[in-house]
Amino acid sequence: MTVLIVLSGPPGVGKSSAGDALAAVHPAARLSIDDVEEAMRASGIAFADTGVAAYEVVRAAAEQNLAIGQDVIVDAVNDSAPARETWSRAAHATGARLLMAVLAIADPELHRARLEGRTRPFSRIPEPEWPAVQALIRQTEPWGPEVLRLDATRTPADLATSLLAELDVLTPGAARPAAGRHEA
């Protein structure tokens, strides 16, 4: 059975790096909302119009890959219930298992330093400013107990190891523990 792995969290926590590290050790299609938004902007679509559309484009690509038996790793902010529901719909439509993980950095100064120190290959997507990221964090809808919570201060390789361990215990048809899983 295929699995849809969704890495969530605010900008600058390392979702893309963790996704790349996981894809290096677990064969999967690797899809990122930011990559799609960059392509949409390159084709003339206004930045204000890319959000929901980018999620739907990535959902469609994820479903295509899941339907042919390929696992998929997605990285996206997923700050609202409708955004998160996108991935539940994709898993349901294809019969895939869904692993939702949220990455977080508890120390705001470390998070800010990561955000402001990162280099990304995008020329059309503006890099978010720290006050906007703080506002996004405050406005993010709470996560339920079923989500895997990961400490994003760990290295991408360590995060990939935790995700692989979770995939090993997430057997077909198994439900997530009611209390959720917290990783150090």
Task: Please write out the topology.
Blueprint: E1 3-8, H1 15-25, E2 29-32, H2 33-42, H3 51-67, E3 72-75, H4 81-94, E4 97-104, H5 108-117, H6 130-139, E5 148-151, H7 156-169, E6 181-182
Parallel strand pairs: 1-3, 1-4, 2-3, 4-5, 5-6
Helix pairs in contact: 1-7, 2-3, 3-4
Task: Describe what this molecule looks like in 3D.
By secondary structure, the chain is of the alpha/beta class. It is 47% helix and 15% strand. It has helices at residues 15-25, 33-42, 51-67, 81-94, 108-117, 130-139, 156-169; strands at 3-8, 29-32, 72-75, 97-104, 148-151, 181-182. A 6-stranded parallel sheet has the order 2-3-1-4-5-6, sandwiched between helices. It is globular and about 40 Å long.
The gist of it:
This protein is α/β, with parallel strands linked by helices.
- The whole-angstrom Rg is 16 Å
First CA to last CA: what distance?
28 Å
- The total strand number stands at 6
Report the mean per-residue pLDDT as an integer.
90
Strand order across the largest sheet: 2-3-1-4-5-6
What is the count of DSSP helices, taking H or I runs of 4+ residues? Answer: 7
Are there runs of 5+ residues with pLDDT below 50, and where? 171-182
Note the overall shape: globular
Give the biggest beta sheet.
Answer: 6 strands, parallel
Class from helix and strand fractions = alpha/beta
For the structure shown, list the relevant keywords.
7 helices, single chain, 184 residues, 47% helix, alpha/beta, 6 strands
